[in-house]
Amino acid sequence: MEALGAPRSPPPATAATSAVLDDDDLLGEILLRVTFPTSLVRTALVCKSWLRLASDPVFLRRFRDLHPPSFLGFYVKTGGTKPPRFVPMPQPPELA
């Protein structure tokens, strides 16, 4: 039995999670795997260190290289005096 006031060691899962979240290189690799830019914005709101990491120009360049912009749609001109009509492409629910 532990004495009162003696520090307890964290459970193994908590220690492992803390080791990952405190390692900027490893956390950066995890955040690079986030599929949508909107999810990256949400992760940046978690805390200041995640915001710093997600807004780093080097990180953002790597993110853009892995996740190029998606094609949102195109304009169709049918002739006459009608203005062009925008035809949206199907998007994942995250971007809809």
UniProtKB/TrEMBL annotation:
Signal peptide range in chain numbering: none
InterPro entries from the UniProt entry: F-box-like_dom_sf (IPR036047), F-box_dom (IPR001810)
Origin: domain of life: Eukaryota
A Pfam family reported for this protein in Swiss-Prot or TrEMBL: F-box-like
Domain (F-box): residue spans on this chain: 25-62
PANTHER family recorded: F-BOX DOMAIN CONTAINING PROTEIN-RELATED
Name of this chain's protein: F-box domain-containing protein
Native source species: Triticum urartu (Red wild einkorn)
